[in-house]
Amino acid sequence: MKNDDGLTLIEALLALSILTLAIAFAMPNGIALFARERAIADANLLHSALQRTRFYAITTGIPTSIQAIDNNWSNGWRIFTDSDLSPESPKQLIAQQSLLGSQIESTQTLRDKVHFLPNGQAILPSGGFQAGTFSVCEKGFKRSHNLIINRVGRVRRVTMAQNPKCSIKAS
Predict the structure, then answer these.
(1) Collapsing DSSP states into helix, strand and coil, what is residue 104?
(2) If 0-12 CB within 10 Å is exposed, 13-18 middle and 19+ buried, where does residue 49 land?
(3) Is residue 148 helix, strand or coil?
(4) Residue 65: pLDDT above 80?
(5) CA-CA distance, 62 to 79, in Å (whole number)?
(6) How far apart are the first and last CA of the chain?
(7) What's the pTM value of the predicted model, to 2 decimals?
(8) For residue 55, pLDDT beyond 80
(9) Which distant-in-sequence residues (6+ apart) come within 8 Å of 157 by Cβ?
């Protein structure tokens, strides 16, 4: 009578090689999935921060701004009261947020700050209306999740499969 209580070396090596092949095929999809989920999470954070800033200005009647940390939206942002757009005026910090690591590009008008008036409108320091697009890019891919601010300050979201603003260098 033969006793089959374990695996032979050849069976173990065969199982290991099949497992290695399965991981090799799944790895690129996993990396893409993590990049996409990170970008979606960061786009959600920025979207809610923009809405929160606008809502704060409307409900309190105090002009409020959201500003990129170190003039780079990829580093995160600060939300604060900003009654006269002057760098010298006192400001009350409302919130601060760091990101998960997505690359964020913006149009020139949104380069470092978005300022909301109590009526909900976004304005430039010069007094003109402020509108533009934030592109939250998936690292290593050209896909982006765009947040578009219209002339009355409302934010909407659009996903682009190919955004020229997004670089393809892998992280």
Answers:
(1) strand
(2) buried
(3) strand
(4) yes
(5) 12
(6) 58
(7) 0.78
(8) yes
(9) 43, 47, 145, 146, 147, 148
